[in-house]
Design brief:
Layout (H helix, E strand, L loop, with lengths): L8 E5 L2 E5 L8 H8 L18 E7 L5 E7 L12 E3 L10 H13 L9 H13 L6 H7 L11 H11 L7 H12 L6 E8 L2 E8 L2 H10 L4 E3 L5 H6 L7 E4 L9 E4 L2 E5 L4 H11 L1 H8 L4 H6 L2 H6 L7 H7 L3 E6 L2 E6 H4 E3 L2 E2 L5 E9 L5 E8 L10 E10 L2 E10 L6 E2 L1 H7 L6 H14 L10 H19 L21
Helix pairs in contact: 2-3, 2-5, 3-5, 9-10, 15-16, 16-17
The protein binds flavin-adenine dinucleotide (FAD) and FE2/S2 (inorganic) cluster (2 copies).
């Protein structure tokens, strides 16, 4: 493994080169922008990725030499992660490209009266601009989806959505040449195979490593098994901003190209662990539209741009949205420690609350997910207090396999019902060998009370969780029938007949 880091964080800020050293590795990008650069247009609202006030645009060269550009919450991104990247703030929005879009958006925000106190405005502007630039703004719903991670306490959203709709009408210019030039410029400030940064942190020396390939990552993590892996930092960022944890050694996964692949072989999809939720979105929606709908409601756009599939599994959360979906689909997870690679069923990865089947120095490499067979039916539904950008009270995902009318295999997986994402074995047994009719649903609903004794917490009571889980089995039956759609969904195009996977 070559270690060619310079100990200096090199990046572009609004087109100008920066070389930063001597700041703690867990300094957030937002702290740096406001306190060192005095770029105070970027605001701090929540400091936990929830409000979007701190949104900036971050560009990087991708594996094919092109440019990857995304809006991120700067409050939970660590500054060393910007090494080799370009950061654009509201002050210079559109300067690199898309100046017409930025000007139109500014005019629309003024014309529609879309700003009152103005605190949220820079975040909305950067997020809307990023969505327009990426070709994601079309109709009103798309505007709402794109700003679901931005909060405004004054304006009432209507005028902001209208400004977004106006921006959606502005044609995008061809900026391929400019993108390639920026990608080339960024590739010149890369630091080699492993970027290494060291500085005093709040409680002693801190080390940051950013390997670019999986072998270097395996070597580094074997040498530092007590290091904190950081992928999208949508959990780890909060350990610093909210829990003030000391993280002496950090290994950044966001530059490891091998972990960012989505590959398909023989009806099985392999998602690299560092594939972001935004990158996985289309493939998941293609496996089944309920997965698309789940991802649409997963956090907000900026969090989906950063958070990874591997992080959603490795954090071991009992209320993560993807694990129940992936367990219902019979996914497997690949783990690597030094040169040893093993694959286990994803459901076996979650041992107990806060405990996973992962040894020190071992990391998640990929998730292997089979597509649905013609005789399989799938259902996923997230129940949360708020429709957009909220954590689940209950997450349900079901896959049934049929031989004619009879259920030959049942996989009912739930989040929020136990200390881990978990299958409902008694309810599954109650469905086997019979048609999926009202009687079968009743039997499964009774059995669910044997499977789970859920907790009461601020999101939901135990009784609510159990009742909801039972009702979702019935909803699956209704949605498979010829009835009217049983929920609001952007992916809903009509009744869910048996023939629709
Ligand atoms: C505003 C907000 C909204 C959110 N909404 C949702 C939501 O709707 N649904 C939901 O499920 N989650 C939600 N989350 C939680 C979080 O975004 C997800 O769990 C995300 O997938 C975590 O991925 P990450 O890459 O950011 O993880 P990180 O924060 O980088 O890491 C999380 C944990 O996983 C470990 N880790 C990361 N990658 C690996 C790997 N490859 N191998 C081993 N360990 C690894 C890290 O060491 C750490 O312990 C939300 C978070 C925020 C801040
Ligand atoms: S300050 Fe609220 S998302 Fe960053
Ligand atoms: S205009 Fe005041 S918070 Fe949005």
């Amino acid at each position: 493994m070559s270690d060619t880091g310079t100990g200096t964080i090199r990046f572009l800020l609004n087109g100008e080169p920066r070389a930063v050293s001597g700041v703690a590795a867990t300094t957030t990008l937002l702290q740096y922008l406001r306190e060192s650069e005095h770029l105070t247009g970027t605001k701090e609202g929540c400091a936990e990725g929830d409000c979007g006030a701190c949104t900036v645009l971050v560009s990087e060269a991708d594996a094919s030499g092109g440019l990857k550009r995304r809006a991120l919450n700067s409050c939970i991104q660590f500054l060393p992660a910007m090494n080799g990247r370009a950061v654009e703030t509201v002050e210079k929005l559109g300067a690199h490209r898309g100046a017409a879009g930025a000007a139109s958006l500014r005019d629309a925000m003024v014309d529609m009266h879309a700003s009152q106190c103005g605190f949220c405005t820079p975040g909305f502007v950067v997020q809307l601009f990023a969505a327009w630039d990426a070709g994601k703004l079309s109709d009103r719903q798309s505007v709402k989806d794109q700003i679901s991670g931005n909060l405004c306490r004054c304006t009432g959203y209507g005028p902001i959505v209208e400004a977004g709709e106006a921006l959606a009408q502005v044609p995008r210019a061809d900026v391929l040449g400019e993108d390639l030039a920026l990608a080339r410029q960024l590739s010149q400030i890369q630091n080699g195979a492993v970027f290494r940064y060291e500085a005093d942190g709040p409680a002693g020396r801190q080390l940051w490593f950013a390997p670019e390939n999986v072998d270097d990552l395996a070597d580094l993590y074997a040498a530092h098994p007590d290091a904190t892996l950081v992928a999208g930092a949508t959990d780890v960022g909060l350990w610093v901003t909210k829990q003030h944890r000391d993280l002496p050694i950090l290994i950044d996964l966001s530059k490891v190209q091998d972990l960012q692949m989505i590959e398909e072989r023989l009806n099985v999809v392999y998602f690299g662990a560092a594939v972001t939720h935004a990158e996985a979105f289309a493939t998941l929606a293609d496996i089944h539209r309920d997965l698309g709908e789940t991802m649409r409601r997963f956090a907000g756009a900026q969090t989906r741009n950063a958070g990874t599939m591997g992080g959603n599994i490795a954090n071991g959360s009992p209320i993560g949205d993807l694990p129940p979906c992936l367990i219902a689909l019979a996914s497997r997870v690949y783990l690597r420690k030094a040169d040893d690679i093993r694959a286990i069923d994803l459901e076996d990865f979650f041992l107990d609350y806060g405990r996973q089947d992962r040894a020190p120095g071992e990391f998640v490499v990929a998730i292997e997910t089979p597509r649905l067979d013609a005789n399989q039916r799938f259902f996923a539904h997230k129940i949360s207090k708020r429709f957009d950008s909220d954590i689940s009270a209950v997450m349900a995902a079901f896959r049934l396999t049929f031989d004619g009318d009879l259920v030959t295999e049942a996989r009912l997986a739930f989040g929020g019902m136990a200390g881990t994402p978990k299958r409902a074995e008694a309810a599954e047994a109650a469905l086997l060998g019979r048609p999926f009719d009202e009687g079968a649903v009743r039997a499964a609903q009774v059995a669910l009370a044997d499977d789970f004794q859920p907790l009461s917490d601020m999101r939901a009571s135990s009784a609510y969780r159990l009742k909801t889980a039972q009702n979702l089995v019935e909803r699956f039956r209704l949605e498979l029938g010829d009835g009217a759609p049983a929920r609001l969904s952007a992916f809903e195009t009509g009744p869910r007949t048996r023939g629709v996977a």
